[in-house]
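writing this on my phone so excuse typos. first protein, seq and then structure
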Amino acid sequence: QAHLVESGGGLVQDGGSLRLSCAASGSVVGIVAMGWHRQAPGNEREMVARITSGASTFYADSVKGRFTISRDNAKNTVYLQMNGLKPEDTAVYYCYVQTIFRGDYWGQGTQITVSS
């Protein structure tokens, strides 16, 4: 059973930056990809960024050019560097790990609030 711990959320002004981290501990084998989703009040959860085991990256159109996802395989940790934050980026951000054998694991979520 894997356990994901997120950190780095908080309050930032319009145009500011934050870096999220998500460390996976426990029995985490067969990782296919790691990434981040977000959910704003009244909205459905949406994909933000994803990085595969082969280091291919994918981004939502709304964050391309502003957010960068990376991972440290040795630490089973995924990062999300967020620059040029906008009020519409305000949401709860969830990290996840996709595995071959055990499906997906999700973090508890961390709040990002961007003030205008």
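second protein below, same order as before
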Amino acid sequence: QVQLVESGGGLVQAGGSLRLSCAASGRTFSTYKMGWFRQAPGKEREVVASITWRTASTYYTDSVKGRFTISKDNAKNTVHLQMNSLKPDDTAVYYCAAQTKLFGEYDYWGQGTQVTVSS
């Protein structure tokens, strides 16, 4: 079991920045990859960024490249998502997720944190 708790969401004006954090506890040593997802009202959930736990290989969806940065702190079992140059289209509930198997799906999820970007 892996428990994930997100923090750092809030309301920000367009062009501003926010930093999301995801604290992992439990069987974190078995984690292969951590990801940030988001879901806006009326839209499907989409992956925003991911990072592999051992090699720190990263992935970003095209719409956030150059604006968002995912990073991890192994000592604190925490993953961060630094979001800069925020746009109203970034408004969504952001979820942290953990994939524990190399060829599996994301199998643990946080409760989500709201990010609202005003124009």
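The radius of gyration is 13 Å. thats all i got for now
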